Amino acid sequence: MKKQAKDVNELSEEEARKEAERLRDEINYHNYRYYVLDSPVISDAEFDRLMRRLEAIEERFPSLVTSDSPTQRVGAEPAKEFGTVKHTVPMLSLNNAFTEEEVVEFDQRIKRLLNTEREIEYVAEPKMDGLAVELVYEDGVFTRGSTRGDGYTGEDVTQNLRTIKSIPLRLVTVRGAGGAMSIPKRLEVRGEVYLPIEGFEKVNREREEKGEQLFANPRNAAAGSLRQLDPRVTASRPLDIFCYGIGTVEGISFSTHMEVLEYIKKVGLKVNPLVEMVHGVKGILAYHEKLERMRESLDYELDGIVAKVNSLALQEKLGVLTRSPRWAIAYKFAPKQETTVVKDIVVGVGRTGALTPVAVLEPVEVGGVTIERATLHNQDEIDRKDVRIGDAVIVQRAGDVIPEVFAVIKDRRTGRERPFKMPEKCPMCGASVERIGAIHYCTGGLSCPAQLKETIRHFTSKRAMDIEGMGEKNVDQFVEQGLIRDVADIYYLKDRKEELLGLERWAEKSVENLLDAIERSKTPTLERLIYALGIRGVGEHLAAVLAKEFGSLESLMQATEERLLSIPEIGPETARSIRDFFKEEHNLKVIAKLEDAGVRFPQKKPTAQKGRLEGKTFLFTGTLSSFSREEAKRLVEAEGGMTASSASRKVDYVVVGESPGSKYEKARELGLKLISEGEFKKMLGLKE
Predict the structure, then answer these.
(1) In this predicted structure, what is the pLDDT of residue 73?
(2) What 8-state DSSP symbol labels residue 37?
(3) Is the pLDDT of residue 75 over 60?
(4) Active-site residue 86, yes or no?
(5) DSSP letters along 530-596, please?
(6) Taking a C-beta distance cutoff of 8 angstroms, is the pair 658, 623 a contact?
(7) CATH of domain 337-412
(8) Which percentage of the chain shows pLDDT scores above 90?
(9) What percent of the chain has pLDDT over 70?
(10) CA atoms within 13 Å, Cβ hemisphere of 104
(11) CA quadruple 628, 631, 633, 635: dihedral positive or negative?
(12) Which DSSP state fits 310?
């Protein structure tokens, strides 16, 4: 006969602690059985009784509540904004294949690089149409979750990911014949958050009843749900996840990708049951065909399959390109297509001056999204497809995402269709247009309004010079009023304060705030400065590579094309783009003008020398008196260090300012090294 449980009010704190621990383990196990194995061993009613008992104990003894308790999936207050998280191992995107020939080429390339004729063993996986995330577990406890972002830095969505029931807050300790499975000190897991089709339809029905705008498709719904500032909204959406790989792992090793998937499934993470081991290119193609047939019967959206070399040693030998691994490929399904009419072809001008032709279409719904415009890429593409204004065309979402004109239905031509040619003059500024390769460029440089506005927005963005107050409307206003004619003019706005005060929406306080933000931005790290210049082909990652390689802007400006090509991550087109940028007289004038305005051109330590803070991670809490939080982070980065946004065991130093918050308490609990602002300045070689 089962013993009657003691009333919660009669429990001692020690009894409550032991029972709470037991209940958490039991509930985590049953969550694992239900959400990962899809094989529950108790009824919903029994599960609910366990949860209610744990909730009652934690309510009676609040000090016993732990961050990984199943009761804490929704407990955080709404956030004001998302923080950022740097991935310790980049979350690279995959190269895409759209035809069998491209998959065959991929397999042949793998064999060539490995110098083998033997069939390659691959792991084939469904390619989910969702949002890529990273989950970080420290000593088995879920501590951080982030979006993929640009592959190097993502958004901190930890609280929202905690609401997804198929994500364990603590890894399951599986006991087998050999004893308990070891839990690594740190485990970074990559996965795809998605919204099942049934859940998507339910969410849209609810939004329709409330008179809210409907989500276009499950992917948009999943992304929108995960990026809610209020975790309670995320919790109300039936999000799910499939995990497909790992980043950094400490305390355990693997020899194959399939071993990785089997392990993360055993410790409680959900892996797609359709994953298979296949042999050679024939195995990849057969798997693709099989899943494309199954596609419509699944309760989630797929847009293709992924094939990965199974051996981790071979993966390492094959290596990675700048943005994608050589050892994996995504083989997309045939995209959804519809027929419509090209009403016009217009030309857009981008930040780098590239002219892009865009088809203006009769609105048509493709894959749940209404398409009114579709890219035509360039003149060569228009000529190849023979697209004319007035043509009936087939449009598709390339990779189920980007709208493009797939083909012209020439049988429906009437003779009134008009061919299109790229203009000889820029539609924005009237400057001459020159062709470089397949792309047409405006030669107006920073004098072109389209380029100038986009260049300023890029230059002042958070990851570049980080000037708060330079939003889209303000930039438009400054350019249209003639206050800014190039990015260096930003640093001379202090001399035009009266003119700023005369503008609509600007008062003394807002002008002062802007000028203060501009002044603070004068000390960027070298990589931020290079990125801010907006050189074609140079993103954040490559800017960091260039900063490490050359150590100063002056050295980079003098680099030859041959020197640039000696860097593994730079190809001929990017090398030429960098060289051309620094040969352009107008750009050199702007750079000189920036220096004259007091913008600091930092000298970075040569690669062979270590910065003062090399390899150390810093966390800031409270208000610093000598510099802003962002300035402090830049100083750390400039000296080879890293910064964290929350307390964890990977933090080496916690810099404590005035009125420290909850991070300070957490840091003390973890026994982290606490230092004052003065001690931090000494580490940087600065005077107190």
Answers:
(1) 66
(2) S
(3) no
(4) no
(5) HHHTT-TT--HHHHHHHHHHHSSHHHHHH--HHHHHTSTT--HHHHHHHHHHHH-HHHHHHHHHHHH
(6) yes
(7) 2.40.50.140
(8) 40
(9) 91
(10) 3
(11) negative
(12) S
- The HSE-up count of residue 254 (CA atoms within 13 Å, CB side) is 23
At 416, give phi and psi (nearest 5°). Answer: -95, 0
Dig out the tokens for 292 from the structure.
Answer: 């494309």
Please report, to the nearest 10 degrees, the dihedral formed by the alpha carbons of residues 294, 300, 302, 306 taken in order: -90
Helix axes 197-209, 218-226, angle to 10 degrees: 70
> At residue 609, does pLDDT exceed 60?
no
DSSP letter string, 610-656: PPTTTT-EEEEESB-SSS-HHHHHHHHHHTT-EEESS--TT-SEEEE
Q: Is the pLDDT of residue 645 over 90?
A: no
Task: Report residue 185 as tokens.
Answer: 């000190």
pLDDT in tens, 404-434: 888 899 989 999 999 999 999 889 878 778 8
Cβ neighbour number for residue 688 with a 10 Å cutoff: 10
Rounded to an integer, what distance in angstroms lies between the CA atom of residue 124 and that of residue 283?
Answer: 9
CA torsion sign for 62, 66, 70, 74 is positive
The candidate with the shortest Cα–Cα distance to 248, out of 58, 361, 90, is 90
Specify the CATH architecture of the domain 445-520.
Orthogonal Bundle (1.10)
CA angle 433, 439, 440 (to 5 degrees): 10
Same topology between domain 96-332 and domain 526-596 = no
pLDDT in tens, 132-172: 999 999 999 999 999 998 788 888 999 999 999 899 999 87
Q: Which of 127, 270, 453, 666 is catalytic?
A: 127
Average pLDDT, the chain: 86
- Which CATH class for the 526-596 domain? mainly alpha
Give the C-alpha distances (Å, rounded to integers) separating 65 from 14, 56, 69, 389.
13, 11, 7, 65
Every domain of the chain and the residues it spans: 8-72, 96-332, 337-412, 445-520, 526-596, 617-683
Structural domain 8-72, CATH architecture: Orthogonal Bundle (1.10)
Q: What pLDDT does residue 398 have?
A: 55
CATH superfamily name and code, 96-332: DNA ligase/mRNA capping enzyme (3.30.470.30)
What residue type is assigned to position 273 of the chain?
P
In tens, the pLDDT along 9-53 reads 888 888 888 888 888 888 888 877 766 665 677 776 777 788 888
pLDDT exceeds 60 at position 399: no
Residue 125, amino acid: E
pTM of the model: 0.54
**What are the tens digits of pLDDT across the range 673-685?**
999 988 998 888 8
The one-letter amino acid code at 629 reads R
**Helix, strand, coil share (%) of the chain residues, nearest 5:** 40, 25, 40
Angle between helices 100-114 and 280-294 (to 10 degrees): 150
The pLDDT-based confidence of 273 (bands split at 50, 70, 90) is: very high
Confidence of residue 666 (pLDDT cuts 50, 70, 90): confident
Residue that the structure tokens 């000696």 belong to: 566
CATH topology for the 617-683 domain: Rossmann fold (3.40.50)
Instruction: Look at residue 177 in the predicted model and tell me its pLDDT.
Output: 46
- The count of other CB atoms within 10 Å of the CB of residue 660 is 18
Spatial separation of the C-alpha atoms in residues 94 and 328, rounded to whole Å: 7
For residues 554 and 581, the answer to whether their CB atoms sit within 8 Å is no
One-letter amino acid at 483 equals L
- Give the amino acid at 468: E
Cα four-point dihedral sign 42, 45, 51, 56: negative
pLDDT value at residue 56? 86
SS3 302: strand
Name residue 299's amino acid. D
Which residue's entry shows tokens 């501009």? 518
- The Cα 260–Cα 245 span in angstroms is 7
More confident residue, 173 or 180: 173
